[in-house]
Specification:
50 residues, mainly alpha, 2 helices
Length: 50
């Protein structure tokens, strides 16, 4: 397991937590969508590096 894969997965989970938090705070859907896309991209990059 490479360090970059771990970093991508960690950042993706961090952004997913932000999505959940912003959803509960009722922040605008545009901000939530951008965070969700970033989270999915980081998680997929980390998984592909494994």
């Amino acid at each position: 397991m490479s360090k970059s894969a771990v970093a991508f997965i960690f950042v993706g989970l961090f952004l997913a937590g932000g999505v959940f938090s912003f959803w509960k705070q009722k922040v605008s859907r545009g901000v939530i969508a951008v965070l969700a896309v970033g989270s999915v991209m980081c998680l997929s990059a980390g998984i592909m590096r494994l």
